[in-house]
Amino acid sequence: MTFSIVAIDKDKREIGFAIASCCWDAGQVCRLEVEKGAIASQANGNMKFLALFFEKLNEKMSLTDILNHFKEVDPDIETRQIGMVSFEGEKQAFTGKKCCYWAGQKTGEDYSCQGNTLVGPEVVEEMVKAFEGSDGPLFERLFAALKAGDDAGGDARGKQSARLSTKKIGGGLSTIDISIEDHLEPVKEIGRIIEVGKNTFQMYELFAQFSMAADVDKPVILREIEEFFQDKTESKYLDGWENLGQIYYDLGDMKNAVRIFRKYLEIRPSMAKIFRENAKSGLLSEDLARELLPLIG
Prior knowledge:
Radius of gyration: 25 Å
Distance between the termini: 57 Å
Number of strands: 10
CATH architecture of the largest domain: 4-Layer Sandwich
Strand content: 15-25%
CATH class of the largest domain: Alpha Beta
CATH topology of the largest domain: Glutamine Phosphoribosylpyrophosphate, subunit 1, domain 1
Oligomer: single chain
Shape: elongated
Number of helices: 10
Largest sheet: 6 strands, antiparallel
Structural class: alpha+beta
Helix content: 40-55%
Number of domains: 2
CATH superfamily of the largest domain: Aminohydrolase, N-terminal nucleophile (Ntn) domain
């Protein structure tokens, strides 16, 4: 009832997994640890495998030996499906004989891809093609694989949840964890959230570049910020619009400051009340208040 991929990027020291299922909380059957490895234990998943996997990794056991250990300690191993990768460059997968049709797996350099109760082998095949054919950060490659599996038909029983998680030492955009529950299109929703996240990081980066730039370089970066915000007319970007307006105000460019704050109020008219109250309490500069208050009544 699940398709997943676990993978590493040795060069960037990233690790992650992506998974989707007709069941609630698909991601609960996966676990990763930075600089160590990642595992998916699905089908009739044995949740004890998750902790046991890292226990054995810490004992320097190979993935082949770990899989053999799972087989030794679990009498129901033929109902399980497992995918594993490690930072030692190993990958290992197993599909029990009692996993529901269609079930199978493929491994490649630094990844393992597996699924059960799928519409057919094309799900895993398309995931592998997408992962191997993409580049960029690991989270983008994992999402490409997950989307390809979803587009190929995915779980034969339908859709409910999906999760994508990546980590690396130092964090940043390479450390994300997106979990979607009870959604008609959980994989597509992960894609939407990824795009919002990328936009948010880009916004922060542009403002950081502006604050650290020499005065001679700031006009160019300011134009880039303006271009970035051309189509960002949703409330989630309000803080960015406010920062842009404040930049113009601090530069003494009242005309553009008012223009930006007017756009801010178009996006969120309910903020007019806040502006009025801030003007009364002195939280809004007097000269900017004089320009803005006639616009908001």
